[in-house]
Amino acid sequence: MEAVVFFVCAVAVLAGALGVILARNPVHSALFLLMTLVGVAVLYLQLAAALVAAIQIVVYASAIVVLFLFMITLLGGDRVDRKSTRLNSSH
User: Fold this and answer.
1) What DSSP letter does each residue of 51-91 carry, written as one string?
2) CB neighbours of 2 closer than 8 A, spacing ≥ 6?
3) pLDDT digit string, tens, across residues 39-82
4) Per-residue pLDDT, 84
5) Which DSSP string do the residues of 17-54 spell out, in sequence order?
């Protein structure tokens, strides 16, 4: 059972890391980062490092990702530039 949880979390961490890099929308990128951080916390729990897993969730998954999302929405990074999408679609 532990091996199944490990492989599922490992795939989730790798998929989330690739999603952070490949996502075009910054909000989606931040949510992929959240998925990666939660997967790493579960891996810490499997290593019997409950304190590190709790710190991973409380500090990184909650505080840092919420700060990223706040800055994205404050700076307007979630809006799509209509002019650039029209130019790209005409080619």
Assistant:
1) HHHHHIIIIIIIIIHHHHHHHHHHHTTTS--HHHHHHHHH-
2) 46
3) 999 999 999 999 999 999 999 888 888 898 898 888 886 666 55
4) 59
5) HHHHHH-SSHHHHHHHHHHHHHHHHHHHHHTT-HHHHH
Report which of 1, 28, 26, 2 is spatially closest to residue 15, judged by C-alpha positions: 28
Q: Which two tokens stand for residue 40?
A: 């790493």
Q: In this structure, what DSSP letter does residue 11 have?
A: H
Which residue bears the tokens 């890099």? 21
Are 37 and 43 in contact, with CB atoms under 8 Å apart?
Answer: no
Question: What was the pLDDT predicted at 23?
Answer: 94
CA gap 16, 30 in Å, rounded: 10
Predicted TM-score (pTM) above 0.70? yes
Residue 1 DSSP SS3: coil
